Amino acid sequence: MATNRTFTMIKPDGVENGHIGGILNMITEGGFRIVAMKLTRLTVADAKAFYAVHAERPFYGELVDFMTRGPIVAAILEKENAVEDFRTLIGATNPANAAEGTIRKKYATSMGENAVHGSDSDENAAIESAFHFAGREMF
Ligand code: ADP
Fold this sequence. Notes:
The protein is an alpha+beta fold. The chain has one domain (5-137): Nucleoside diphosphate kinase-like domain (Alpha-Beta Plaits, 2-Layer Sandwich), CATH 3.30.70. 40% of the residues lie in helices and 17% in strands. The chain contains 7 helices and 4 strands; from the N terminus they run βααβααβααβα. It has helices spanning 12-16, 20-29, 44-50, 60-67, 82-90, 103-107, 122-132, and strands at 5-10, 33-40, 72-78, 116-118. The longest helix is centred in the last third of the chain and has 11 residues, at 122-132. The radius of gyration is 14 Å and the shape is globular. The model has no long low-confidence stretch (mean pLDDT 97).
């Protein structure tokens, strides 16, 4: 059964390029309610753990450097069928393949620097949310 929450990050490129407001606007216009949100920064250990599934990939080091180079916005979003609908809203990993109207189509600059993260399963959404937020920070 699909849960009604997902986890997102506006990645360092999105923050650096001044797109926090534009991305949050697309999220709320897309029907998602912000349950929790903060400006924070991943440590190298955080980023390595978060992307451990990609540890053997050639881009892993570059990805860890990118994700730790500046602040991110971490947030929990609520909507019916949140995980799947948010993956649709963000678009394909490579912005060249992202559909019109998606966040990555508008704000991503490359396959690596693609502006936003969206959890890929309900299980990962719960793990990623719990990593960043205490219960009293969720509303
Ligand atoms: P998604 O974020 O769309 O779920 P993945 O889980 O496959 O995509 O990859 C995680 C992140 O790793 C991507 O969002 C992107 O920042 C980076 N990444 C994935 N593939 C590549 C690649 N071929 N080159 C550089 N960075 C990549």
